[in-house]
Amino acid sequence: MAHYRKKSARVRRILLRRRIITVLVLIALVLGIFFGVRACKKAPNEQGGNEGTGSGSVSSDSGEPYVISSAKIGSTGDAIMHDSVLWTVEDKGYDFSGIFATAKPYYSAYDMMVMNLEVTFGTNTNYRGYPNFNSPATLADAIKGAGVDLLLTANNHSYDNGSSGFENTIKQLKNRNIAFIGTRQTNDKNYKVSDINGIKVGFACFTYSTLSGGKKALNGHIMSLTDGQNTNTFTYDNPEGFRAEAKKIFEDMKKDGAEATIIYMHWGDEYAARPSESRQVKFAKIINELGYDVIVGSHPHVIQAVDTLKNEAGHETVCIYSVGNSISNQRKEIMSEDNHSGHTEDGVVFEVTFDKYSDGKVVLSDVNALPTWVDMRTVNGEKSYNIIPLDLNKNWTSFSVSSMSDAKASYGRTLARIGEGLNEWRLSHGKAAVPLTAN
After folding, report:
1. What tens digit of pLDDT does each residue of 278-323 get?
2. How much is the pTM?
3. How deeply is 140 buried, as exposed, middle or buried, from its count of CB atoms within 10 A (0-12, 13-18, 19+)?
4. Distance between CA 416 and CA 325 in Å, rounded?
């Protein structure tokens, strides 16, 4: 019995020593983790960084600048309310939300979503489509509700309802707190600088115009002197005049703190497969020379190529000459004989991402595209339109696509136009190529 007690005491001493060693090891580990984490958190703060900057960040221990924030911006094409589109929502109190329902999760996911509003909100209820578009302002509610943050209001249809429609469009957008650029009231700036996740991005918008008796005209509608002054326009025969105006806006945006710049151009020839040398390419080169980062074009109602321009100073400008239609009734079966291709049913959300580094530098870090297709169907005699995002990561049947073959054909048409230029940029900047077909 005495031998058993002696042995147990010895065991107890061994166990006690083991416990003490274990506790000391645990204390050392805890202290090591604490001071390690503290050091990791301290370094970014000392350099003006942001804790938790995400997977794109570079450790401050390397001494290299690291990403502290990103801004992803999506830009899509012409929202055109033809008569057939208006008729589908007339009995619904002109509730347009169904048109954007499928696209809404995508639009809402961008830090900034931009759309070209190619209609005006007239002061009467004689709603109509082409050639003089007059839409109810409930369209603005649906667009905002779908996640669009910024509307482009300078285009060839901006004066379809004269001065009253011009002014009422501005009024309705302001009443709804929807940002817009291209047209303005007299005391407004002719550009916009937005703080997006700590990155200041400058936005400008121009439309081509003509001159009549020394006054600006859009689609033959002569603008009042005041309304003309309150619209950013250019003429194809005066590229140097455009250069001066675009330069002034660029400089003003920079003074307002813009760290990145996007310019939207309503230009070119309708339904043209390729950009016009005189009406688009010439002006794109001017924009690149001025130092803008991104050009997004509209007006042709079909998608046109992506290109990367580089000026003598080495500055790169990525350009998509046309993003096509976001919503319209330009169906392939009703287009003119030489436009049965289906391209007027196609659109794209052109995506650009700007990264800001801990040393204050802002760079264009990613360029991508989300093709879209206008799905029009008739069920039990009732027609409806729906913008379909052709996301290859999703099963399109979940979008209730009426024709899978038509949706795949749309994707193929779009990538045939933009794929080469888009993938050229992506591959040269270390990004994966975008698939050119939808299997």
Report:
1. 999 999 999 999 999 999 999 999 999 999 999 999 999 999 999 9
2. 0.86
3. buried
4. 16
